[in-house]
């Protein structure tokens, strides 16, 4: 696991979404759980939350990798219940938030889900059985009988280029274009 270093709001890098959200605190008070206003910043892999937008030190940071985001109307009973969402990861803390509006809550969830899809697409699962099923229409003598199998595109292979004239048909009575 890579270390996540605390950063001032201005230095969090490639910010994809930011804004004030209410975050439910972990410690429940005598009157039930408390919601605190926090400036939240989402970048490519990390969710930061600060006391306000000018804070130098985040109140909390976590990697969103392996989390999932969803709307969570059950978190509140008041008029703001349609503004709630949560970030969940099995075996880790669940983070609960209230956005200023239902549309804003949906936007946070959409942005996080988009990022998570992007993060998971960086690792492409490889299963040899599936590979053989996909290419079973290839002539059996050419099928996968090499010991190693390259699953990435080889960027170093030379490009085979045809001469320009070869791709155009010269019609009778026309001069071929020479450059």
UniProtKB/TrEMBL annotation:
<dbReference type="GO" id="GO:0005886">
    <property type="term" value="C:plasma membrane"/>
</dbReference>
<keyword id="KW-0597">Phosphoprotein</keyword>
<keyword id="KW-1003">Cell membrane</keyword>
<dbReference type="Pfam" id="PF00169">
    <property type="entry name" value="PH"/>
</dbReference>
<dbReference type="GO" id="GO:0005737">
    <property type="term" value="C:cytoplasm"/>
</dbReference>
<dbReference type="GO" id="GO:0005634">
    <property type="term" value="C:nucleus"/>
</dbReference>
<keyword id="KW-0472">Membrane</keyword>
<dbReference type="InterPro" id="IPR037781">
    <property type="entry name" value="SKAP_fam"/>
</dbReference>
<feature type="domain" description="PH">
    <location>
        <begin position="14"/>
        <end position="117"/>
    </location>
</feature>
<feature type="compositionally biased region" description="Polar residues">
    <location>
        <begin position="141"/>
        <end position="157"/>
    </location>
</feature>
<dbReference type="InterPro" id="IPR001849">
    <property type="entry name" value="PH_domain"/>
</dbReference>
<dbReference type="InterPro" id="IPR011993">
    <property type="entry name" value="PH-like_dom_sf"/>
</dbReference>
<keyword id="KW-0963">Cytoplasm</keyword>
<feature type="region of interest" description="Disordered">
    <location>
        <begin position="135"/>
        <end position="162"/>
    </location>
</feature>
<keyword id="KW-0539">Nucleus</keyword>
<protein>
    <submittedName>
        <fullName>SKAP1 protein</fullName>
    </submittedName>
</protein>
